[in-house]
Amino acid sequence: SPKSFEATQFKPTPNNLEAFFMPFTSNRHFKANPRLFVKAEGMHFTNIDGKQVLDATAGLWCVNAGHGRREISEAVSHQIQELDYSPPFQMGHPAAFELASRVAALAPTGLDHVFFTNSGSESVDTALKIALAYQRAKGQGTRTRLIGRERGYHGVGFGGISVGGMVNNRKWFGTALGGIDHLPHTYNAKEMAYSKGQPAWGAHLADDLERLVALHDASSIAAVIVEPVAGSTGVLIPPKGYLEKLREICTKHGILLIFDEVICGFGRLGTNFGADYFGVTPDLITCAKGLTNGAIPMGGVIVSKQIYDTFMETSAENAIELFHGYTYSAHPVACAAGLAVLDIYKNEGLFDRVKEITPYWENAIHSLKGTRHVIDLRNIGLIGAIELESRPGKPGARAMDAFLKAYEKGMLIRVTGDIIAMSPPFIVEKSHVDQAVSILADVLKSID
Ligand code: PLP
Questions:
Q1: CATH superfamily of the 35-65+349-446 domain
Q2: Which one of 174, 297, 341, 420 is separated from 68 by 20 to 30 angstroms, measured CA to CA?
Q3: Which CATH code for domain 72-347?
Q4: How many whole angstroms from 124 Cα to the centroid of ligand 1?
Q5: Which residue has the higher pLDDT, 189 or 177?
């Protein structure tokens, strides 16, 4: 079997597909039915057969500015030639400071400091560690409990799967962290099916945090982590008033509130962050994906001035204030990509573009009401979810068929369980939206 090959000459055969142990993929199914992309530009991928595939998911919710952006590739290529690597511990390089300042400027008032990571998962674990260390620095070392939410997805690190609420992420690996509890998720089909934007019902679900405080005592709780909009478990949109209540209860009990904005951050809802959309300011924000438009891996944790100052003020002179970091934290090439991406967002007004197209998007998603198999439709910003009735005893099988059929018809969608999630790049045109919905309607009619 070939040990190396030119990507352009690569022809998938059972032999040369074998070595790659693919993530979150049915390896056996994929290797029998390979789907390979070789190029991408704008709203489209090109697959290995030369066919155009409409990207209705911005890759994995990350290619917000669309594919093949020359500004990014030029910045990356320049940076790698000038300074390919610089150690982030006890050393620095200009782009790291510039990017941190620019991200902090985009973040809600009071969130002024940025710690860089390489992924959403690392951002989550970093945020949880900062929360624990902050409480300790404040002299509240008994606050070690972390609270997540059912149907939360916070990546795949041991911290993330512990606070996450996705059964398959937990049952295989256990939950490495003890001292975890979960709020109930916010989805209730009876009360909120087919709602547009935020459902009116469900703010009271945040009161469960008071129950957990009564059970464990506030003095044992460090932080609560939630996604403002739960993305990967099927687009669960927070009820009106819910996040406000969580904020109120956290503040009342001295508990830090972490928003996991790996999906919502950088314009997905038409605002800089989900925090801005909902008008609720957390103490920490995790981000990744849209920070570099998916072009180079990078994530970050944005923390409040109060948290940062606490570390600075409680450490001995010249001591390392936070005993944490990655070899590739603030990697120069990732920083260059991030700076180029933030320029694109600003110069092209892409977050406003999301706002402008949201009503059209909402109508398009909800036009699927009554289509075969559909039992709920929901949307917020440039996110849409189409929930299908599951086949008896075979959860996820119908949506997987929809995924494969959509790909055959030239469109990339994302499925989780029996929910189809759509999250196109912000450069999406109305004609692409029409095309996406029309392909989807055909797909749903054609599958059992
Ligand atoms: N947190 C949220 C809310 C996510 O949606 C994701 C990925 O989808 C992650 C964390 C994990 O990010 P990554 O896959 O970059 O580790």
A1: Aspartate Aminotransferase, domain 1 (3.90.1150.10)
A2: 420
A3: 3.40.640.10
A4: 8
A5: 189
**3-state SS assignment for residue 235:** coil
- Tell whether ligand 1 has an atom less than 6 A from the beta carbon of residue 229: no
Q: 270-319: per-residue pLDDT in tens?
A: 999 999 999 999 999 999 999 999 999 999 999 999 999 999 999 999 99
Cβ–ligand 1 contact at 274 (below 6 Å):
no
Whole-angstrom Cα distance, residue 20 to residue 5? 14
Q: Give the three-state DSSP class for 304.
A: strand
Q: What is the pLDDT of residues 52-101, one digit of tens each?
A: 999 999 999 999 999 999 999 999 999 999 999 999 999 999 999 999 99
Q: Is the predicted pLDDT of residue 6 greater than 60, yes or no? A: no
Distance CA 221, CA 442 (A): 49
Whether residue 164 has its Cβ less than 6 Å from ligand 1? no
Atom of ligand 1 nearest to the CA of 230: 3
What is the amino acid identity at position 9?
Q
Whether the CB of 133 sits within 6 Å of ligand 1: no
Mean pLDDT (the chain) is 96
Give the CA-trace dihedral at 210, 212, 217, 221, to 10 degrees.
Answer: -100
Q: Where along the chain do its domains lie?
A: 35-65+349-446, 72-347
Question: What is the pLDDT at residue 171?
Answer: 82
CA 83/CA 43 separation, integer angstroms? 31
For residue 84, give both structure tokens: 């390919």
**Sheet with 145-149, edge to edge strand ranges:** 111-117, 299-304, 284-287, 256-260, 221-226, 145-149, 180-183
Given a contact cutoff of 8 angstroms between Cβ atoms, the answer to whether 410 and 54 are in contact is yes
Residue 5 has pLDDT above 70, yes or no: no
